[in-house]
Amino acid sequence: MRNGSSPRISTGAGLTLLELLVVVAVLGILAAVAFQQFSLYRSRVVDTAMRSDLKNAALAMESYYAEFLQYPTSLNAIQLVGFRKTSGVTLAITVPSPATFTLTASMPNGTKPSFTFDSTTGLIN
After folding, report:
1. CA–CA–CA angle 95, 79, 117 (5° rounding)
2. What is the mean pLDDT of residues 102-106?
3. Mean per-residue pLDDT for 86-103?
4. Is the pTM of this model over 0.85?
5. Which of these, 54, 55, 100, 122, has the minimum number of CB atoms within 10 Å of its CB?
6. 103 forms bridges with which residues in the sheet?
7. Residue 84 Rama label (left phi>0; alpha psi -120 to 50; beta)
8. Are 101 and 94 in contact (CB under 8 A)?
9. Residue 121: exposure state from Cβ atoms within 10 A (0-12, 13-18, ≥19)
10. How far apart are CA 74 and CA 49, in angstroms?
11. Model confidence at 73: pLDDT above 90
C-alpha cells in the first residue's frame, strides 16, 4: 500500500454503466424491428386468408351454377357444395346479373380492409 491511498479494486471483470446502456439500447432497437416485422407478417396472413376464401368461394359458386344453372345469393347455398369459410372472414355475395357475380371478403387487421373477386375478370382486387 502507498502512503495515504486506498487499495484499488480491479474493474476488468464487470461491465461499466455505459456499456450496459449501449447493450440495452441495441436490444431495444432489435425488439422494435422484430415487432414491426411480426405485425407485417400477421397482416399478410390475414390477406392470404381473405384471398384464399375468395378463390374457394368462386369455385363453389361455379360448382353450384353447374348443378342448379344459377348463381347462389347466400353463403348457405355454396356451403351445400362444400365451401368452408375461414373463421373471422366475412364473405358477401352479390349477383348483379344471371351470368356474373361478385364476392367480397373482409377481415380486420389486414393490409386492406377487404378484397373483391369479380367473375367477369376472374381477378381479386
Report:
1. 40
2. 97
3. 95
4. no
5. 122
6. 93, 117
7. beta
8. yes
9. exposed
10. 20
11. yes
Residue at grid coordinates 446502456: 21
Contact call for residues 117 and 124 (beta carbons, < 8 A): yes
CA distances in angstroms from 58 to 16, 42, 52, 118, listed in the order given: 63, 25, 10, 9
Cell of 35: 415487432
Domain boundaries, the chain: 17-124
Least Cα distance to 103 among 113, 112, 114, 111 occurs for 114
What DSSP line would sit under the chain, residue for residue? --TT-PPPPP-TTS--HHHHHHHHHHHHHHHHHHHHHHHHHHHHHHHHHHHHHHHHHHHHHHHHHHHHSS--SSHHHHHTTT--PPTT-EEEEEEEETTEEEEEEE-TTSSSSEEEEETTTTEE-
Is residue 65 pLDDT above 90, yes or no?
Answer: yes
